[in-house]
Amino acid sequence: MSLTATDKGGTEFAITPENTYIGRCYKILDMGTQTSTGMFGTKEQHKVMISWELFGEDDNGNPIIMEDGRPFSVTQWYTVSLHEKSKLRADLEAWRGKKFTEDELAGFDLSKVLGQYCMIQVVHDESGKYANVNSIMAYKGKDKPEPVNPNVVFDIDNPDMEIFNALSDNMKTKITAAPEWKGSKTEAAKPSQPVKEDVVITDINEEEPINLDDIPF
């Protein structure tokens, strides 16, 4: 199976090979409220995009890397919710290796996962064009691969325009379409402005998010 796919514009890009990797979270993008359509109709939900850089070896013990020597990466979109049926809660608990307590469910600062390691199983979709996160598990190894990509957090309510301008046109379009973008202080945002690393998630039944800075991931 070829590991190269072509997008509609004809640009070729390398697809992450199927394997189980050590993953390090290096990017968290607050996408704001996004509209999605599925079998249950159209929904507007607050979304966040999490990306991991991946470290692994093939069957011959060779490192799985891109042609330029950098690690492959994989991305997962989540609805920002800690509801008991949410995908985000399930993956975070698998990542932590333990369930959330009732106090933790009151609110969790998602930026705490930035720089954290886990085990990630990557699989391809039926077309073979896309690599997806199949499962996430706690990483219990003592040796952690050295980071390659810089850590990035984007907060739509307090946008760092240097980070925003480095995103793809497709990502920029999605972010600027969110209603939160219209209310953000984009004119005041400067490249040197520090990123507000406090994307807080709460159970959907909570009225107000609570940022518990002292809880461990």
Task: Give a short summary of the structure.
This protein has 217 residues and is α+β, with helices and mostly antiparallel strands. Helices cover 15% and strands 33% of the residues. It contains 5 helices and 10 strands; from the N terminus they run E-E-E-E-E-H-H-E-E-E-E-H-H-H-E.
Compute the gyration radius: what is it? 18 Å
Structural class category: alpha+beta
Strand % is 25-35%
- The tally of strands reads 10
Annotation field: number of helices? 5
Biggest sheet overview: 6 strands, mixed
List keywords for this structure.
disordered C terminus; disordered N terminus; 5 helices; 6-stranded mixed β-sheet; 217 residues; two-stranded antiparallel ribbon; single chain; globular; alpha+beta
Protein topology:
Layout: E1 4-6, E2 12-14, E3 19-38, E4 41-55, E5 73-79, H1 87-96, H2 102-105, E6 108-109, E7 117-124, E8 131-138, E9 152-154, H3 161-166, H4 169-177, H5 179-182, E10 200-201
Parallel strand pairs: 3-9
Antiparallel strand pairs: 1-2, 3-4, 3-7, 4-5, 6-10, 7-8
Structure description:
With 217 residues, the chain is an alpha+beta fold. The protein has one domain. Helices cover 15% and strands 33% of the residues. It has 5 helices and 10 strands, in the order E-E-E-E-E-H-H-E-E-E-E-H-H-H-E. Strands 3, 4, 5, 7, 8 and 9 form a 6-stranded mixed beta sheet that branches. The protein has a two-stranded antiparallel sheet with strand order 1-2. Strands 6-10 form a two-stranded antiparallel sheet. The radius of gyration is 18 Å and the shape is globular. The protein starts with a strand and ends in a 16-residue tail after the last strand. The N terminus and C terminus are likely disordered.
